[in-house]
Description:
Elements: E1 4-6, H1 8-24, H2 26-45, E2 58-61, E3 67-73, E4 78-85
Helix pairs in contact: 1-2
Amino acid sequence: MKPLHYHQLAESEIDGAHNWYMLQSQQAADGFYEELIPALNRIATQPRLYSPYMHGTQRIVLSRYPYSIVYRERLHEIQIVAIAHAKRRPGYWTKRLRQ
């Protein structure tokens, strides 16, 4: 199992989404984490399980929230590139791949 490494902006996206759901309700915010955390754990244990996406990445689409986890497997880690909202422009995160 490779460790997960989060791009700084992906961490900000997680915080931003959670904070937005918290303004809606505690239940919505908790539900976001309850779906996000197991998905991240599946990526850590089975990174090749999910479909190829753009620019050498893969992604998992959350089922109850309009977000995808965009990641790529590297030699010693799995980089979480973005927690992308479905309404954002596809590929907005591609500049993060250079980092």
